[in-house]
Amino acid sequence: MKVEYLHTMVRVKDLDKSIAFYKMLGLIERRRTEHEGGRFTLVFLCPPDQADGRADVELTYNWDGDDGLPSDGRHFGHLAYRVENIYEMCQQLMDAGVTINRPPRDGHMAFVRSPDNISVELLQMGESLPAQEPWASMENTGHW
Ligand SMILES: C[C@@H](O)C(=O)SC[C@H](NC(=O)CC[C@H](N)C(=O)O)C(=O)NCC(=O)O
Ligand code: NI
């Protein structure tokens, strides 16, 4: 199955300062999304010649602070990959004993944890897949 690295997410306390830092490393802001409901902003940074939707870094700015996360710079977020078929990938992982913390109920996004509890986001390449059991009725298992 085709799998492509998508981004690494880190949580930031000051978007402008963080963007200025990554600009010094040659990255540009490719995309920004504001999430009123969740009260956070996502900023995707990538090299200037990369325009295929992948980003080196996804900055997450929580408007109300980082839920008490440590401020030592190690409050890592997740690694993200886009996969050819998110249901088949999640089934393979589940068969290998990996917990699917956030099942792909929407046929688009799932979260799993590595053996070291690193959060890994999986996104469906292209359009979301049609709703399908057992995924459509699976519950989240803890915080992804
Ligand atoms: C767009 C896609 O790449 C995402 O990563 S959105 C995932 C989503 N992010 C948030 O909810 C950000 C705010 C949240 N308070 C946080 O700090 O994570 C999400 O499900 N994040 C959970 C995670 O483990 O990354
Ligand atoms: Ni992400």
TrEMBL record:
InterPro entries recorded: Glyas_Bleomycin-R_OHBP_Dase (IPR029068), Glyas_Fos-R_dOase_dom (IPR004360), Glyoxalase_1_CS (IPR018146), VOC_core (IPR037523)
Domain VOC: 4-125
Alphabetized UniProt keyword annotations: Lyase, Metal-binding
One Pfam family here: Glyoxalase
GO MF, any single term: lactoylglutathione lyase activity
Record's protein name: Lactoylglutathione lyase
Organism: Litoreibacter janthinus
